[in-house]
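Lab notebook page, bench 4
Experiment: in silico fold of construct C2
Operator: M.H.
Input chain length: 137 residues
Purpose: comparison with the prior construct
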Amino acid sequence: MATFLTESDYRHLIKGVNLQHLIDEDPLVLDMAETAAIAKVKNYIHQKFDVDAIFSATGTDRDPDIMEHCINIVLYRLHKKAPIMPEDILYDYNNTLAYLEKVAEGKIGLMLPRALEEDMETPRTRFKLTANTKRSH
């Protein structure tokens, strides 16, 4: 059961009655969509960030950007079964995927707990230092 998001987190993007209509008033449908959304976000960020710490946070300790992107994915998944996909839902979903790809590539830095090397307390990094060959002139 996904517990990272709460039903009140959706209020700024969708009315409660519309959300209930999308899930056919079955909380399990919402739970399954949230679980899938969280898994998708984890797949993008797990190399650099401590996903267990990020997704075990509650209340105001949760990262607002991660919450928003999870909600965008949830709403997209819920609207997939609707006869028409609203343009704003598709737009937000595509922006979320582009954002997560940039995070995974290291082009966007986030203020999140870093993943640690196993058996170490140092952040996991993937830097390679190189130098140009010496010139003789």
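Observations: The radius of gyration is 19 Å. The mean pLDDT is 86.
Next step: discuss at group meeting.
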